[in-house]
Amino acid sequence: MSPDPRRPGPPLLEVEDLAVRFHMEGRIVEAVKGVSFTLERGRTLALVGESGSGKSVTALSILQLLPYPRAEHPKGSIRFRGEELVGRPEAFLRQIRGDRIAMIFQEPMTSLNPLHSVGRQIGEALALHRRLGRGELEARVIELLGLVGIPEPAERRHAYPHQLSGGQRQRVMIAMALANDPDLLIADEPTTAVDVTIQAQILRLLAELQARLGMAILLITHDLTIVRHFAQEVAVMTAGELVERGPVERVFAAPSHPYTQRLLAAEPRGRPQPVAATAPVVAEARGLRVHFPIQRGLLRRTRGWIRAVDGVDLQVRAGETLGVVGESGSGKTTLGLALLRLLPSQGGIRIAGAEVQGWSWRQLRPLRRQMQIVFQDPFGSLSPRMSIGQIVEEGLVIHRLGGPAERAAAVARALEEVGLDPSFQHRYPHELSGGQRQRVAIARALVLGPGLVVLDEPTSALDMSVQAQLVELLRDLQARRGLAYLFISHDLRVIRAMSHRVMVMRGGVVVEEGPVERIFEAPEHPYTRALLAAALRIEAAEEGVVRA
Amino acid sequence: MGGAVVRRERVRFLGAPLRLTPIGRRRLANFERNRRGAWSLRIFLGLFLVSLAAELVANDRPLLVRYDGAFHVPFLVAYPETTFGGFFDTEADYHDPEVRALIEEKGWILWPPVPYRYDTVVKDIPGPAPSPPDARHWLGTDDQARDVLARVIYGFRISVLFGLALTLAASLIGIAMGAVQGWFGGWVDLGLQRFLEIWGGLPVLYLLIIIASFLAPGFWTLLGVMLLFSWMALVDVVRAEFLRARNLDFVRAARALGASNAVLMVRHVLPNAMVSALTFLPFVLNGSITTLTSLDFLGFGLPPGSPSLGELLAQGKNNLQAPWLGLTGFAVVALMLSLLVFVGEAVRDAFDPRKTFR
User: Fold this and answer.
1) H-type helices in chain B, by residue range?
2) How many angstroms separate the CA of residue B358 from the nearest CA in chain A?
3) End-to-end alpha-carbon separation of chain B, Å?
């Protein structure tokens, strides 16, 4: 088997002066520029960087999975157990992939084949690399599913991916990766697509498995909290270069490179300005319910209801931020859309002093100026065919506010207010970075002069340093304009930096509500406690509090 | 929209100055990288322009006559024979040797390259009609002693014009239907989908034949009848795009701004749906031309005597001893359809955001 780890020999993985470049429509893009690192058995190296830093490309080139020949390595070498991998024939690499080096991808739903049962997919990973009898194969599949903590593995192996929860799917992915006892596991953002409580469970599982099986883990992530709690070594990448490498404690305590210092300082911090007790209530909901019918059969009779939001009361004052926290499926986005009357709902809604529940679209239209929304995905929320100027101007056109010259001036003002140069109005969304696009989305909401803005995960698609800037901007705008925010997020750090009060949602109902300090310092509900532990300390909760 | 200025850049395409957005420029560049498609478009446009000016290229009336110190333009104005010193008050027949002798006595005649129209019956062909190709009739004559080249030029024009008109009308209806279905969804969608299935299940060719038998055939009636059945091509594509796009964030954002259904559909969703619809258009055009040709071939198409490629093919079938008829018909139809398919492929490449060239 593998040689004694204590014996001096070549490290498990040696990446030396690796460079990657892509040919894109006549241009050459240097994605990775001379990166070197080593990884020993049983250790975890976290490769950290913001989007576009080249961390995923580096990971994919270890398995030589880049789109060759569009990608190429002008220099550098990757040695695995002393053997060169760069430029080796496909047949040789296939023996390594999935056997000695395994990989876990970010999105468990698209990485599993929806037409095959999970047991069959794990079995396939096994059968590709070793000859096993039918019985042995089945036994090993059940063993692996048990290893990754799937309950009743003998039955669950017949399940299809859609029958499992997100966390279970990610566990199945891990089982597939571990099928052949790899020496090296590459995990590319393994928990980005799952909720924080699940993330804590998955990371604990990986740590346990590493301790038991002795594999090395190369963890690619942008989340510094994960790095701090999970890795022994960290390598920081930016713009295709590796700027700092070392033990986690050292790098976090005394970062030497300016970029690392900036990255560590970038966590959203600070508190919002206090609200006057006399501030008027901008938006109010009483017993708000959104129920989606479950329709079955030929005549589509309604057989039951999904209670997405089930009796929520809320109140937001001018200049106040109400943070709404919850995991996916808790109904927080639905609540935001229902409050703006973008979804049909029951219960009382009062916006800017008017009882708007039941108003027709036409009646509501003048009031739309008062309530705006900013969505999570800055790539999807801007029409790709309109210039930034047109996007920001649209609300003014719809509400027939001002002539062309006044509208142009208003657009320029709104762009300046969100920290963009007015010359941006001639650009198109695809020319902008994620943070800039999100600023455009905010400018589009602000140009109408709203009193209430629903912010639906406005920071979660952005890099950490950009998140911090956006939080600053939002707080600044709130202070200047006295905006009321309904701030929806699963990211507790951002919620803490933004909110005056916090509402914790689960399964469509509010489990706990209160001032932000009380919720964070002394949570009462066990679910809130589990959420806080998972998010801030990556601790998995005891059984029963959260779903697997 | 008024105030906002869109940054567009000037580019030249086929000699025409265009103002394009960056994404449009990328598409144009992708289109031109498909050299086969770009050249097919050039050749097709060239042929189409020539056929649009068919009266100048193939006509049994001269382009210009110089007679007795004055100029005459017979292809535009009908002159009686008496103008040129003849006997009859009827329009001059410039192919008549006597008329020709009269004119050339006091002037000269400028003929178009092909001195026949699609309906000119040539009286002095060397043998019985259809006569094989020779120096005067490059592609021979058909069974009614009409010049095949002239008929092909006119036939090409009518086919392409018919195809374009049908494609335009069918696309407008199809896009509107697809947009309504996809946008409103629910019962509207369900009802129209079922209707489409029934309508699409009708045997189109038989129905066209039946309808053609009690309606006087003509360009516009035929267009109307065929429109009944050809608008369905784009419905599914546009419907799918609208179904997808109506829940996209930028559409929801515009809805939150207070935009009405019409604004949302036209300004936000339609441009995205048009990309996929546009890639289908050359193929819809192809289909329209093929249907017209097949109806003509069966004798249910354009009125008798019209220059039509389908009718030429039918003649070729009936006159196997005159292979130039069938071969010409085949070559012209094949060339036209191939050019359009190549153009269509290039358009598809141009709109494919993932397509990259090395």
Assistant:
1) 22-33, 35-52, 54-57, 97-105, 148-184, 186-201, 204-214, 219-230, 235-245, 249-257, 261-263, 270-298, 309-318, 323-351
2) 6
3) 38
**3-state helix/strand/coil string of B22-65:** HHHHHHHHHHHHCHHHHHHHHHHHHHHHHHHCHHHHECCCCCEE
Nearest CB partner across the interface for A382, out of B2, B21, B250:
B250
Residue of B nearest to A385 (CA): B271
Q: Choose, out of A29, A298, A361, A394, the residue to mutate when testing the contact with B (most B CBs < 10 Å).
A: A394
Mention every residue, 6+ apart, whose C-beta is less than 8 A from residue A546: A197, A198, A327, A527, A530, A531, A534
Contacts of B255 (CB under 8 A, 6+ apart): A342, B264
Q: What global pTM score does this model have? A: 0.75
User: A444, B257: Cβ pair inside 8 Å?
Assistant: yes
Per-residue pLDDT of chain B (358 residues), as tens digits, is 333 444 556 666 766 777 676 667 778 888 888 889 899 999 999 999 999 988 888 888 888 888 888 888 888 888 888 888 878 888 888 888 888 888 888 888 888 888 888 888 888 777 777 888 888 888 888 888 888 899 999 999 999 999 999 999 999 999 999 999 998 888 888 999 999 999 988 888 788 778 877 887 788 888 888 888 888 888 988 998 898 888 788 888 888 888 888 888 888 888 888 888 888 888 888 988 998 898 888 888 888 888 889 888 998 899 888 888 899 999 999 999 999 999 988 888 887 765 554 4
Two tokens, residue A189: 């953002």
CB–CB contact B3 A382 (8 Å): no
Please tell me the distance from the alpha carbon of residue A309 to that of residue A330, in angstroms, as a whole number.
8
- The answer to whether A428 contacts B255, with C-beta atoms less than 8 Å apart, is no
> What interhelical angle do B219-230 and B148-184 show, nearest 10?
40
State the pairing for strand pair A484-489/A321-325.
parallel
| pLDDT digits 0-9 by tens, A6-15 | 555 678 999 9
The half-sphere exposure of B162 on its side-chain side, counting CA atoms within 13 A, is 33
CA distance A395 to chain B (A): 5
Which residue on chain B is closest to A376 by alpha carbon?
Answer: B249
Determine contact: B252 vs chain A, CB below 8 A: yes
Taking an 8 Å cut-off on Cβ atoms, the answer to whether B3 and A389 are in contact is yes
- Chain A partners of B257 at a C-beta cutoff of 8 Å? 368, 372, 394-395, 398-399, 444, 448
Give Cα separations from A112 to A100, A106, A108, A166 (angstroms): 20, 11, 6, 11
**What are the DSSP calls for B206-235, one per residue?**
HHHHHHHHHS---HHHHHHHHHHHHTTTTH
* A163 DSSP 8-state letter: G
Put simply, whether B259 touches A (Cβ < 8 Å) is yes
Of A377, A395, A403, the CB nearest to B249: A377
Contact A141, A194 (CB under 8 A): no
CB contact under 8 Å between B356 and A25, yes or no, is: yes
d(CA B59, CA B46): 19
> What SS3 class is residue A347?
strand
Yes or no: say if A422 and A393 are a contact pair by the CB < 8 Å rule.
Answer: no
The residues facing A104 across adjacent strands are A187
Query: Which residues of A are less than 8 Å from B21 in CB distance?
Result: 428
Contacts 24+ apart (CB under 8 A), B346-349: B346/B31, B346/B34, B346/B36, B346/B37, B346/B38, B346/B40, B346/B41, B347/B31, B347/B37, B347/B278, B347/B279, B347/B281, B347/B282, B348/B279, B349/B30, B349/B31, B349/B33, B349/B34, B349/B37
Give A70's contacts in chain B (Cβ within 8 Å): 356, 358
Pairing of strands A452-456, A484-489: parallel
B97 contact A CB<8A: no
